[in-house]
Amino acid sequence: MYNQYDELEYARNIYQNGFQSNYLPTQLRLLAIYMKTELGYKPRQLRAELTAFCQDRLPGYQPAVHYPAINKALRQAGQKGASLLHIKELPIYQWELDFLTAYPLCPQEQMTAALEYNCRKLMFTLLVRTRLRRLISLQKNYGENLCLYFKGGGREYRELKQEAKLPSSQDLHSGLIYHLAAAGAVTPMHDGLLRLDFMEEADRAAECVSCSPTFEPAFSISHFNNAGWYYDYYNRLPRMKLCRHCGSPFKASGNRQLYCPGCTEEMERERWKIRARKHRGMAVPAGDSLLVPADSTTGSCHGFEITVQPPLLKGLECGTVFS
Ligand SMILES: [Zn+2]
């Protein structure tokens, strides 16, 4: 699975192994920037190398057809400050988790434990998004950008809900955001724009903590679209597991489920390909089999070595199901 925030790795992979999908524009742009920034090609050489690469590695390459796409990629690579993102993981610190746990929400009698938990999980997801945007801003030299806002819009809210892994029945606006706004954690503005007031408080808290000697991450996030599951795994919610292939936390639908939905889907595709090859009487190449668990021998947790914490939610009964 391609990590969209690690463009450097993706571009290197294209350079070494050829194009990864049929969608060319992004791949050409990343490849051109890779050749410029990592291999140090000057404009004329860059044009020659990129064209030669397409000639060799692009099936059905036709100069007249592909010229505009190559030209566009070269223009994009030539822009000032063009660079490749290289974000493999995002560290989450203990003080951030403690900050979210201790953040004063509405009095408990007005909220069920599940609602309160989902509010904090949404705050965690917003914190992850903000930290990620700040890292992007830093790597792309966008200048100082505190990213204290969540840009509204239907698509953004759908993505946020998806990343937070909230139950589909959970309404964001009249539910969680309403409560967060009442607690002063966020301020809803025009067109769905949200001001993340709690992030400002977190920044102030960070200034006090950053000089502490125990400034170690509690865990690191590398599957950014699964932020909510990291929070659930950390809080030891029932049925949370780490995927045996990619290491991402996920919510298992049964005891025997070993892989996250993304990897399960990938394995299904692999199975289908193998079946199709067998059906056509073609040999199945060795090694072209199902996904191999990345940690089948060690059973390690891919850096998600959460020192097992007591559940943060004192009031919750073990086995509470949130979705
Ligand atoms: Zn997985």
Task: Outline the structure in words.
The protein has 323 residues and is mainly alpha-helical. 48% of the residues lie in helices and 7% in strands. The chain has helices spanning 7-17, 24-37, 43-57, 63-78, 94-102, 113-139, 154-164, 172-182, 197-209, 227-234, 261-279; strands spanning 90-93, 149-150, 187-188, 194-195, 217-221, 240-242, 249-251. The protein has a three-stranded antiparallel sheet with strand order 2-4-3, covered by helices on one side. Strands 1-5 form a two-stranded antiparallel ribbon. β6 (240-242) and β7 (249-251) form a beta hairpin. The chain starts with 6 loop residues before the first helix and ends in a 44-residue tail after the last helix. It binds zinc ion. Zinc ion (ZN) is lined by residues 243, 245-246, 248, 259-260, 262-263.
Secondary-structure element string: HHHHEHHEHHEEHEHEEH
- Alpha-carbon distance between the two ends: 26 Å
The biggest beta sheet is recorded as: 3 strands, antiparallel
Residue runs with pLDDT of under 50 for 5 or more positions? 295-303, 306-323
Could you say which overall geometry the principal axes of the C-alpha atoms support? Answer: globular
Tally the helices: what do you get?
Answer: 11
Q: What fraction of residues sit in β-strands?
A: 5-15%
Strand order, largest beta sheet: 2-4-3
CA radius of gyration is: 23 Å
Short descriptors:
323 residues; two-stranded antiparallel ribbon; 11 helices; globular; disordered C terminus; binds zinc ion
